[in-house]
Fold this sequence. Notes:
By secondary structure, the protein is of the alpha/beta class.
Amino acid sequence: FPDTNVFxxxxxxxxxxxxxxxxxxxxxxxxxxINYSGDFSSAATQLKSEGYGTEAEVTNNQENADAxxxxxxxxxxxxxxxxxxPDYFQELVIAYAKALxxxxxxxxxxFLTIISCAAGNAIVLALKRKWKTAPFIWxxxxxxxxxxxxxxxxxxxxxxxxLQSLDYVRYTNECQKYNQELADYRKKRNINDxxxxxxxxxxxxYSQDFTTESLIPIFQVCSRGIVQHVDELPGLFxxxxxxxxxxxxxxxxxxxxxxxGPMKKDRKSGSEHCNESGIAVIGGIQPERLxxxxxxxxxxxxxxxxxxxxxxxxAPLVFTDDDVSEENEAEWSKIVEWMIEIPAxxxxxxxxxxxxxxxxxGKSRAVWKEFFDDISALQPYMxxxxxxYIPKLKTYCLKFMAVLHLLKCYEKxxxxxxxx
Length: 420
C-alpha cells in the first residue's frame, strides 16, 4: 500500500514464508525478514552504507523480537533427532556427551562425521546411475574459545589418532630396516642379489594441516579419504594459495573435493594424478569471524553451502564424576575400525576403487521424493542468502541416509547394499 508505505500479506500459504498471513509489515521490517532473517542491526547497517535513513536514538526492541519469532516460526529450530539413531549408538553418544559435558547434537555430529570418512570412498549411495553421493560430511562448530569444543573433538578422533600412531611406528621401523638393508646391499655389490623392497607407504587417517599440493600423494596412498581436523577453520582458508602469493587455485581444488572426483596436477616438473579424493571436515570458528570467512565470495563460489554449521550454546560447566568408560571407548573404536575395514577392492585395469553401491528402494525412496519435491517448491520463496543451501541440503540428506544405514549394518555385522 504505497499511500501508507506498508506491506500486507493476505495469503496464509507456506510459500509466503518468512511472512505470516494476515500480518502487516513496514517496508524495513519486510526487507529485514527477507534478506537478514530478522536481524535488524545488520539490515540497518547495510541500508545506512547505501545512504538510506538517518541515525535513530532508540531502537524498537519489541519489533526486533517479534520479527525474530516470526523468522523462527518460518524456519523452526528443532531438537537434534537423536531418536533416528540405532539404540546402541544413541546410548554411546549420550554416554560420551554426559561424560564430556558436551551438547548431545555436537557429540553426535562429531561421531557421524568421522564415520562418514571411515567408510569414505568404500561406499556410495546411488539414486540413479549418474546420481551418486559419497558420504563425507563437512561440519563446523560456531563457538567462542573456552566453550569446551576440544575435549569432545579429541575423544571422537581418538580411534583415528591410535591407528595413525600405529602405522607411523610401523612405517618408521620399516624405513630403518630398509635403509640398513639397502646399505648392506650396496656394500656387497653382488649382481645376483635383489635390492630390498621399499617399505609400504604410511597410511593417512587424518590431517591437521595440508596444502592442496600434498593432497594427491595422500590420496594415492589412502584413496578412501581422510578427516581434516582443524581447531580454527579460518586457518584452513587463510593457508590457501599461500605459496603462490594468493594467485593459485587452492580454493577451487577444495571446492571440487566435495564431489570426491579424481585430481590431476600438471607442472613443468611433471604430472601427478589420483583416481579418488575425499575429505570429511571437523572445524571450529569464532562467531565474530564467521562473516569474515564465509563472506560474499564464499557464498558466490558455493564454499559456504558445502558445510553443515552448528551453533554451540553450552550451559556453564559444573564438575561431575561422569566419565567415558573403557567399554564406551572400545565400542567407539570398534565402530570406526569396522567402517574402515569395509572391503573396497581396486580394479586392476583402471586403478579405481570398486565402491559398494547402496541403492535406495521402497519406502525410503518415497520419503526422499516427498522431501525433494517439497523443499524444491519452497526454494524460490526463500531469502536470497538461504537459497544456496537447498541443493546441498538435498545432498546431505543422502549422506546422512548412507551413514545411518551403515550404523544399522554394523549392528548386524553385515553390509547390506539396499537402503529401505
